[in-house]
Amino acid sequence: MPHALARPTTRRATALAALVVAAVLTVTGCSTSTPTGEAAAPTSTTTDGVVVEHAHGSTTIPEKPERIVALSWMTPDIVAALGVNPVGMEKVWGAGDSGFQPWFEEFVTAEYGSTPEIIPYTEAGPNYEAIKALDPDLILGLYSGITDIEYERLSEIAPTVPYIEGPWNPSTWQDMTRTVGKAMWEDEKAEELIAETEGKIAALADEHPEFDGKTFVWGLTLNEGGTDLGVYLEYDPRVRITEALGFTSTSAMDGFLSTAEGDNWYTGVSLENLYDVPADLFVAWGSSAAEGTYTVENPIVSRWDPVAADSYVIYADEAKASAISAPTVLSLDYVLPTYVEDLAAALEGDPTVSGE
């Protein structure tokens, strides 16, 4: 599995970290659910409450929840933004020593004056005892791999909404916001948050007309000795956000899609074919600044048009990488101003390798 922020399980953050920094990783051979969904989860409102349909069946939330356990990536952000400080959450990838991602910790501290309880990690899956002790009236884990058996056990504690279509498939950030909003009885507020965030993205695009029509590739840094450059596909959130800012994906995207295996959201380009990939800009993330430098100094990569023109942005810190890889209304607010500044500078030949 590549160091591609590959479906990070909050229950298995330690194992993911080991994968991320592994010395030799391949770009193929890992299959997951592709985040291609365009519609929010089927939902309805009955006299018995709100019903959310999902991959394991359907869940009825009988009344507006007040004590929410937010499992997995993205979910805690959305719950907090919709007006409830989660009573508990798992430590997520990209979090600091506190266990919270910086934008989330800043928001809940300012809004609620406290942070949620961190649910202790277990190798076996959800920490049922710790979750039960929080006395939740709703458990949310949309960006997760919650199994049938885990779903049944969690549902014995409180109404539970797991992934909607497939494991580690959150769909778009807009759809996930709508689904969490429905489960929280906050449909209208969810739409307001979506519109506000989309407005901010549009405003940033308007402020940078130079982005319009510029082509880009979003990818991965090279591991030492690597012969393939990992690249993300058109439905990946990193690619979608960059397009929303005015950029255009490389014309080689069709070729990327044709070589992707299974339902992967990334593929690899052999370095010997890299010069056949036109782009004005290269954006990537890696596990260290040294890895970013190694990539752009590679004899082949260094002569690729965007790198030769110093038009590249490489993020080597987990916070920025996770903020844009699993975007939410909170994480986008955190990362977009810096991201846009870095993109604009790169087009002027002023590259970024974070950590330097």
Automatic annotation (TrEMBL):
Pfam families assigned: Peripla_BP_2
Record key words, sorted: Signal, Transport
Domain Fe/B12 periplasmic-binding: 67-351
Family matches, as Gene3D superfamilies: Nitrogenase molybdenum iron protein domain
Top-rank taxon, per record: Bacteria
GO CC annotation: outer membrane-bounded periplasmic space
Signal peptide (residue range): 1-33
Subcellular location: Cell envelope
Family: Belongs to the bacterial solute-binding protein 8 family.
Protein name (record): ABC-type Fe3+-hydroxamate transport system, periplasmic component
Taxonomic lineage of the native organism: Bacteria, Bacillati, Actinomycetota, Actinomycetes, Micrococcales
